[in-house]
Amino acid sequence: MISQIKTKSLNVLTMKNFIILLLLTGLFSCTDKQANNQLKSLKETNRAIELNLEYLEKHTAYFTINNNIFEGKGKEVVENFINESQFIVYGEMHDSQQTSIITKAFIPLLKQAGFDYFALEVGPTSAQVLTKLSTPAKKTIENLHTFNTKYAITELDEVDYPIPFFTGISDAEFLQEASANEMEFWGIDQEYYFASFFLLDELLETIISNPNFSEMKILKEKANQAMIKHFMKELADDNYETYKNIIKDNHVVHFFNSFKKTNTRAQQIIDDLQTSWDIYIRWRDDSHVDRISYMRNNYMKHYNKASETKKLPKVFTKIGSLHASKLISNGAFDIGCLTEELAQKNGTYGTSINTWKPYELENDSIVNNLERYKRSFKRYKLFTDLSKQDKWTIINLKDIRKDLKKGVVVLPINGDYHRLKKLIESYDYQIILPVDEDVKPNRS
């Protein structure tokens, strides 16, 4: 019996060896090349490929924007993330003509998908002023031109403005598009450094029908002159703490105290100003996280209010790229993290987008930012190699992230690993802009 079992086992082993021999010698009608390919394929199924250009190209699409319409294969990617998301956080490049162009093109698609809310990296009162300046929509460019001309700060080496990111003609054009599509603007950030002068005028407007208006106007002018005095001191001395002195200046304090507590709009403006000034005063003392908390709190105030009348309100946010990260960024859990938390809680999707501008038009010449800022971009070469000067590039980081988790692909083991891992886990899409330029100023 034992002898029979041994004989049977030997027969089985012999048969297995014979089959292997057939495979290797091609007796099953396989050429040597086909057999090698089969073995290579077998190896690859047991080992993830390292992230490379060929792999990335499969997760990359391109598009152009013509007459406010997306064109090309990337259009489908854009439409998909808009239609599937409750929250979209577009991490922008500031002061960018192309950013304004894509924002304007987003808006009709956003509105069609049910996005009624547009969160902006401006102060709460600034957002209300932008609503006023863009009503009616057709007057937006003209109204912003007048506003920027009146309040632009021209005494500095470079002109600065009271409401950032709405200084150019193309900025006014996307604001006009958003207004025409009846999107509600949310101001979630602190008021800008040079917003104070127009905000004093906004305060005065809250009592325009008050019998004491003339007296209040005089108080406002004194407060205004006091602020100018402090800013002039800052121009002469970079270490001068402007807002630390403004916030306790007698003329400013007296003007603020002259508004009744029952004037809720005035009190809100004053509160926003004082909060903003306090953050600027403490910038050396980790006030950045206080700013981010202020942004998160403002976002939630608007979101909770919108939720009273809409189930799962959809919100588009345009904000600096660092703020769009789903992970901790610059020591804070920012807006991209907040919207991801909300999406997970709601069982919906949040989309965060990072952007780069590798090429920039300066003095009629194209400057290569990949070379100019080599240290910042060198770890992302696999991605930046996909950029084009005449097209938008969109890379699906979300699908790459899924492949990393599945073990289909692995990151390089050199120093690139850290930057690439953070990028892929922080954002869902990487958009690379075509040749960009600064916005054309919308002022006289």
Fold blueprint:
Blueprint (H helix, E strand, L loop, with lengths): L1 H24 L6 H14 L3 E2 L2 H5 L2 E7 L2 E3 L2 H11 L2 E6 L4 H16 L2 E6 L3 H10 L6 H12 L17 H12 L3 E4 L8 H10 L7 H24 L5 H5 L3 H8 L6 H18 L6 H20 L6 E7 L7 E2 L2 E2 L1 H12 L3 E7 L2 E4 L2 E4 H4 L1 H4 L3 H4 L7 E5 H10 L2 E2 L5 H11 L2 E4 L12
Parallel strand pairs: 1-14, 4-7, 4-10, 5-6, 5-7, 10-15
Antiparallel strand pairs: 2-3, 2-13, 8-9, 11-12, 13-15
Structural account:
- The chain is an alpha/beta fold.
- Helix content is 53%, strand content 15%.
- The chain is built from 20 helices and 15 strands.
- A hairpin with a 2-residue loop joins strand 2 (60-66) and strand 3 (69-71).
- Helix 9 (196-205) packs antiparallel against helix 13 (264-281) and helix 10 (213-236) runs antiparallel to helix 12.
- The longest helix is centred in the first third of the chain and has 24 residues, at 2-25.
- Residues 1-32 and 38-43 have low confidence and may be disordered.
